[in-house]
Specification:
Radius of gyration of chain A: 22 Å
Cofactor (chains A, B): FAD
GO molecular function, one term (chains A, B): FAD binding
Oligomer: homodimer
InterPro entries (chains A, B): FAD-bd_oxidored_4_C, FAD-bd_PCMH, FAD-bd_PCMH-like_sf, FAD-bd_PCMH_sub2, FAD-linked_Oxase-like_C, FAD-linked_OxidoTrans_Type4, Oxid_FAD_bind_N, Vanillyl_alc_oxidase_C-sub2
Number of strands of chain A: 18
Protein name (chains A, B): Glycolate oxidase
CATH topology of the largest domain in chain A: Uridine Diphospho-n-acetylenolpyruvylglucosamine Reductase, domain 3
Helix content of chain A: 25-40%
Largest interface: A-B, 92 and 92 residues
Keywords (chains A, B): FAD, Flavoprotein, Oxidoreductase
Largest sheet of chain A: 5 strands, antiparallel
Number of domains of chain A: 4
């Protein structure tokens, strides 16, 4: 498909809509707009518009649709699969200026926000109102629009679910510029196909999110974290299905290896409470009553010790818990800092298959002779497996990475897992999604895309 | 669009697929297959097939797609909006024989079921394993396939959410007979557009659900119910936003009027603990610790008394709670038994708008001079408002019903509510959905339908 190339008339139009100070071309475009956190494509859009309202975005989309110009929606660019990179140029619409919290409704427990509000600002704002927005992805400087677009998950999915579970309503600009509202503040909805759920996780390919109504919960009053050292990773991970089976529901269950802890210590310049063991589970429990939460974690501590844990370290002060979880939060950056280049595999598998998958990657790294590091959400089966380039020459790196990815995605499919647990498909994981899901599934995705965007102008080449 | 009429060759094909004893034509078709619980259309399909496997349904769909024959999916026919009625004849595929619970996986907390399993059987089965399937629609003899197709809600949505929140994976036969699997046992999923969420609530118009993987929770150990008498309905309902604002999360908050209680008493032949007041809130609290649950309900009891409640009756025995909730569960049947015909409006509004909506219906019933009864889920804003025919002549009934519905749906839209909270759109609520949502929204629904079913053979004329 031949798209229209941007010319001076198009720029004139964009300036007439958004104003001169919000439209950037050529050298004015900041380097960050050429990449995301994994894909350093060096591909620039022809023009960046920092939109300020739904109306601006609607007018630009209508124009782009008529003129057949590519539009790439952009939040903070913290994605890991290339979804917000403008590989084919065109217009990039950034939501960086649409960063207002519009309303806290404490009678309906909802928060209405613009798409450019940062996750960290939402968390802080609702906490200061004694409320709780549970989704907890590691990258707190992501925009909420980006979180919704990838259906971001995070650590607390074990107990609280993912971003999808906390989006009550959306305002969406369709590829042709029309604006629809879906959902709202309503708790239930059986009023036609759930367009809302289709837009969530669509990585900006079906519509442009311009407003979101989020569901909030009361802030839990008590929280404990448990750091549990194990002799090895297999023993640690194999304990998780036993915890689930015991009908305890921790808020989070993460697994980590000593190597990741050491890397994070170096990166942060801060000491972790313990690194004498090869492998750890890190758990959190929250609730409103001390006794209730204590009961829950004591039961789980007992299960861990029975399963071979060396010890159970309990933290109940906020400071201590923050230290531990900050280390966990720094893993990706620490691993990044430890190598020249990396790529990640974000598969999700049923919770009782995590151990098998991790064993497989350990064998694989020896077989292919490449460094593979992993950590992740043991409690929800979502793994983050990083293949590291270190000092490999380009061709060898590409060949080994391809081989490792082919094998890992095939293994995930074999275990009834899925291509992406929370980071999305973007441009980079498309071949793996196609392979894992097959033609019938992909044809349904493509027909949905064509139904929303028959001219394929909104974020083309992503997802399907 | 002209569909192919069923002839003897088609019947032959269906018999060759499913066997003679599972294919019914003409007089062999049971009367229940001509209607649902509200729509007594007297419209029979040309043939009913009681399918027994995904393969049978796939082969029939493929054939029907090629031949351009209408197919209507059918569960237990307990719907309230006409979605499972074969208004235009063709093939009805009933899931009544696909009623097997396939697997309880206690390491992943999932239950895999065929679509014809009854809700009551799921509840009983998981309870006997100390587990919990939270969605709690009043109609326990509905099939799970039907519950998923309408995204059924129920009483416990305040705390636990709706059916959508408990569907992890689906097996779906597409309109052309291809079979896809979406989701699975995985806790997270960012692997392309959420087809699963599109099928949920699609009322059997986008695909035929042949298997479902449900998410389970541990069974809460403690449960209390509070029956709270108020001087009038407005005072009762206006208390609900105060409860939500107090950051307590009851499991359920229902409102009811004396007239509904009296009708249910008569219907069940059983006494309700109290009917001295005009209006009541009925609340449940559950959890794992007695103290935790007691704290929660005491706080809420206090709020109710401050807001003008006469008293708070607390039930903690299972027997006592069952009596109360059985009465609540019998409201629809009781109201049905009290009149000659009725139709219902199942709108949902933001929780702090319930009182305003109910006041509006009270004015409306006087203005139009027709009996209107309502009860519903005060805690989640989902109302069930019944317009009763009593002894009105047919023409007058139609005219008054149309007027009442037009006004009520317009009011719901004005309050930022939605056409259906949990019963779906089917054939009956389509005009109201169109009016409420507008052309742009409906055109998106239609384009999704066309993407899945370009020949419009699967349950045509429903939803959009």
């Amino acid at each position: 498909m031949a798209y229209k190339k941007i010319d001076s008339k198009d720029i004139e139009f964009l300036v007439s809509v958004a104003g001169k100070d919000k439209v950037f071309v050529g050298d004015q475009i900041h380097e960050t707009y050429s990449r995301d956190e994994i894909v350093h494509a060096g591909k620039y859009p022809d023009v960046v518009v920092e939109a300020e309202s739904t109306e601006e975005i609607s007018r630009i989309m209508k124009y782009a649709y008529e003129q057949e110009i590519i539009v790439t929606p952009r939040g903070q660019g913290t994605g890991l699969a290339g979804a917000s990179v403008a590989f084919q140029g065109g217009i990039m619409i950034s939501t960086v200026r649409m960063n207002k919290i519009l309303e806290l409704d404490d009678e309906n427990l909802t928060l209405t926000v613009e798409p450019g509000v940062l996750l960290m600002d939402i968390i802080k704002f609702v906490q200061s109102n004694d409320l709780f927005y549970p989704p907890d992805p590691g990258e707190k400087s992501a925009s909420i629009g980006g979180n919704i677009s990838t259906n971001a998950g995070g650590m607390k999915a074990v107990k609280y679910g993912v971003t999808r579970d906390y989006v009550r309503g959306l305002e969406v600009v369709l590829p042709d510029g029309r604006v629809i509202e879906v959902g709202g503040k309503n708790v239930k909805n059986s009023s036609g196909y759930s367009i809302k759920d289709l837009i969530i996780g669509a990585e900006g390919t079906l519509g442009f999110i311009t407003k979101a109504i989020l569901k909030l919960l009361p802030l839990p009053k008590v929280s404990y974290s448990l750091l549990v050292p194990f002799p090895d990773l297999a023993t640690a991970i194999e304990t998780v299905p036993k915890i689930i089976k015991s009908k305890s529901i921790p808020t989070a269950i993460e697994f980590m290896e000593r190597s990741a802890i050491v890397a994070a210590e170096e990166f942060l310049g801060k000491k972790f409470p313990d690194k004498s063991s090869d492998a750890y589970l890190l758990l959190t429990f929250d609730g409103n009553k001390k006794e209730e939460v204590e009961d829950a974690y004591e039961k789980v501590a007992h299960i861990c010790l029975e399963a071979g844990a060396f010890d159970v370290f309990i933290s109940n002060t906020q400071e201590r818990q923050e230290t531990i979880w900050k280390t966990r939060g720094a893993f990706l950056e620490a691993i990044k800092a430890s190598t020249s280049e990396l790529d990640e595999c974000d598969v999700v598998v049923p919770r009782n298959k995590v151990a098998e998958f991790i064993k497989f990657t350990n064998v694989l790294q020896k077989e292919i002779d490449i460094r593979i590091q992993s950590f992740g959400h043991a409690g929800d089966g979502n793994l983050h497996v990083y293949v590291l380039r270190d000092d490999l020459p380009a061709a060898e790196w590409k060949a080994k990475l391809t081989k490792a990815f082919d094998r890992m995605y095939a293994k995930a499919a074999e275990l009834d897992g899925l291509t992406s647990g929370e980071h999305g498909i973007g441009s980079e994981k498309k071949p793996f999604l196609e392979k894992a899901m097959g033609e019938d599934y992909m044809s349904v995705l493509k027909s949905i895309k064509a139904a929303f965007d028959p001219k394929n102008i909104l974020n083309p080449g992503k997802v399907c």
